[in-house]
Amino acid sequence: MRHYFTILAHEVRTLLYHPGTYIAAVLFLLVMGFVFTGILDDYSRAPQETAPAVRFFQVFWIPVLFMVPLLTMKSFAEERRLGTLETLLTTPVSTAEVVLGKFSAAYLFYLTLWGSTLGFHYILQLYARDTRYLDSGPLIGGYLFIAVSGLLFVAVGILASALTRSQAVAGILCFTFLLGLIGGLSYVSELGTLRQEFFSPVRTALEGLRIPGHVDDFTRGIVDTRQLFFYLTGCILALIFSILGVEAKILNS
Amino acid sequence: MASYDSFRAARLIRFVNLILQAVLFLALFIGLNYIALNHTWRFDLSESRRYSLSAETRAYLANLERDVRIYVTIPADGADAELEQARRDIMALLREYTYHAGKVTQHRIDVRSLDIYQSRRDAEELGLDQPNQVVLVTDRHRHVLALGDFYTTRDLQIEGFHGEAALTAAILDVTKAEKQKIYFLTGHDEMRPDDVDRRRGLSGLREELRQRNYDVASLDLTLSRQIPEDAAMVVVASPQKPVRPFEEMLLRDYLTTRAGRLVLMIDPGVAHGLENLALDWGVRIYDNVIYDLDPRSLTETNDTRLWRFLPDPESGITDNFVNGSGLSLIVGPARVVSDDLARSVDEGLRVKKLIATSKEAWGESSYRLRNVLPSYTPEQDLKGELGVMVISERLKPANLPLSVRGGRLAVLGTADLVTNDRINTVGNLNLFLATVRWAIDQDNRLNIPVRPIERFQLALSADELMRLRVGLLLGVPGLVAAMGLFVYWTRRN
Questions:
Q1: What are the protein's GO molecular function terms (chain A) (predicted)?
Q2: Which residues 366-395 of B are in CB contact (within 8 Å) with A?
Q3: Is the pLDDT of residue B400 over 70?
Q4: Do residues B137 and B111 touch, judged by C-beta distance below 8 A?
Q5: Average pLDDT for chain B
Q6: Which residues of chain B does A21 touch, with a Cβ-Cβ cutoff of 8 Å?
Q7: What are the distances in angstroms from CA B316 to CA A128, B265, B352, B362, B435?
């Protein structure tokens, strides 16, 4: 795995030095800042039953649907378009190391972006002078959800990028996959056809995989091994498919 | 060169190999997740494990006798924040039930969300016709919980979430082999549960009771000559003729020797023949009609509004009415019932007034006189905070270590609150159901604490709020932008 760390270090360095990274981060924080101030407007108008952190994590899908495609679409599509991927793979580096290296760099950036939103809660607590706004329960649970679910979301982005040489197509593919994961599973689990007794196990499985339900659990401080397992195995599956996708494309070229 | 030895064939074989690998990994993913769904652990990291089920509920779930299917008809409506919050609270709680039932019993708790407007056909098949309910169904019984059953309120605000107590009680109820049977006395022109009349019918009440898994039946003592063994409770709703002495004796016997549960709802202006029975239980039923001139006690249609409720945590009947919940009863004419102050000291009897009129009210005893305007006559009429509902129960002697079931009697000075016309009033239905629950001992089995609901509100001035907004929008993004500029400047140099 020596090459994995080399690739990871290279990817991280590229991200750190690239001005686009900071522009993306500032835009992300501005959007999330707007969302957070919108939530706080409700709290200044009338008392609410949940901590602002809980409401904040419930809109997790906004950055996921828009940031993850932007973050990952370049990883393989761009390399393939420029023809540098083939060159890279002629070196003694395995496809798995390349995929893992790119995935880890994107995931670290994803975590850093979300991690910087901790500042919002700190600023809120400073102004509100109420320690409940820094309540560890929803914050730990919420960020744990972001960290765990981020594994799957970023891996899906990497997979989308590995399937095509066009960045735009990779971005749209990733958006579609993520929309299917976040909204589609909920929609399918509520289909009338699945109400029949025969489909009961399928419906139970789909209901257990509803991502909005996972957010509710995590922000309450409930950690369910089924959910952890789903994100972890989903991430591994998406990465394996990415490796197979890259290999298939090389084979065809 | 053989065709299988060509580059093309090799590429095809590798491609098929890749596809097969993909299918195998997908199958592995599905298989592993399916196994994980059935072998799961949930950890509650919250302070004092506040979202975990209580030991009592877990013990009941371990002895679950049949499968329970739970339908939640609260629509996922993002526009209504309170409804959305309620849906989240209830669904999160139900996930705990499903998880624990899967761990400790062979029987399943299956939770389904159903929008009755979008899935109208399914809803009709299941007999679900109202939104914002949680309906528990087994192969034998069903039980309906409204949103109000999940929350306690104070000053029109939600104060606590007692969904676990409500759900556990409902699960116990629907999984029981037999339904609790409530008998309505007949034979004296009482209000009848099969009567659909607007003013004197109780068909609406019967439906509400059936939805809550009670069986409703009529009881004519002149025919049966005894109160059935399966009677969980007997209701006497507005008799228009006096109850015969032998019937009174049967009711008295049922209360004392069989620890029976009796609810008397006696309208004013009729002879009912149950004065002595009530008096033996420390309750006095007066022959008068209440007039209450307090503007808060009258509705626009000149009905009586009862709004003074006395707290009684032991019975819990008025829990939903005290603490400024805003709930009240709307009834027609009523008579005074009160605890008998002249009764001899009896420590084994607990008598408690639960509903009273305002201080402006009086009990008009000359109401039978024609062409006389009702007015308070000192030393003839009662005046002040007059009782409209009193409960009485036999307690176990203090020196007895065993828990002995005692009889329970509830007396209301009006039967008007449960007629088809009135039962849809939230307060009326709530009070009657709470009385039934107390009489049948339903809530006393559970000792599950209420989860308090915290409230968050930003108490900032407009200036502070503006600075907070600016801080959020410029603070953190500004810091990142500064870092980017620093890296850019360093790289350029």
A1: ABC-type transporter activity
A2: none
A3: no
A4: no
A5: 85
A6: 484
A7: 38, 19, 12, 28, 9
CB distance from B27 to chain A under 8 Å? no
Question: Minimal Cα–Cα distance from B7 to chain A, Å?
Answer: 11
Give B-chain residues touching A222 at CB under 8 angstroms. 42-46, 51, 92
**Structural contact between residues B144 and B212, judged by C-beta atoms closer than 8 angstroms:** yes
Return the ∠ at Cα A143 (arms to A138 and A146), rounded to 5°. Answer: 125
The SS3 of residue A157 is: helix
Asked if the Cβ–Cβ distance from A137 to B47 is below 8 Å, we say: yes
**Inter-chain CB proximity B25 and A220 less than 8 Å:** no
- Across the range B276-304, mean pLDDT stands at 90
With contacts defined as CB-CB under 8 Å, which chain A residues touch B21? 240, 244
- pTM (predicted TM-score): 0.69
Q: In sequence order, which residues have a C-beta less than 8 Å from that of residue B318 and are 6 or more positions away?
A: B309, B310, B311, B312, B354, B355, B431, B434
- Nearest-CB residue to B477 (from A29, A124, A224): A29
Could you tell me if A250 lies within 8 Å of chain B, comparing CB atoms? Answer: no
Parse chain A into domains and list their residue ranges.
3-251
Fold of B55-174: Glutaredoxin (3.40.30)
- Out of A21, A123, A192, closest to residue B471 by CB: A123
* Amino acid (one-letter) located at A168: A
Question: pLDDT tens, B217-263?
Answer: 999 998 989 999 999 999 999 999 999 999 999 999 999 998 899 99
Residue B125 banded pLDDT, cuts 50, 70, 90: confident
pLDDT, position B44: 80
- Does A190 touch chain B if contact means CB atoms closer than 8 Å? yes
Q: What is the ipTM of this complex?
A: 0.82
Determine, for residues B36 and A225 on separate chains, whether the beta-carbon distance falls below 8 Å. Answer: yes
Residues of chain B with CATH 3.40.30.10: 55-174
Q: Which candidate from B15, B112, B485 shows the least CB-CB separation from A251?
A: B15
pLDDT-derived band at B78, boundaries 50, 70, 90: low
> Which SS3 state, helix, strand or coil, does residue B236 take?
strand
Residues of chain B with CATH 3.40.50: 179-395+405-444
Nearest one of A19, A50, A249 to A133, comparing CA atoms: A50
Q: Does domain B179-395+405-444 have CATH number 1.10.3470?
A: no
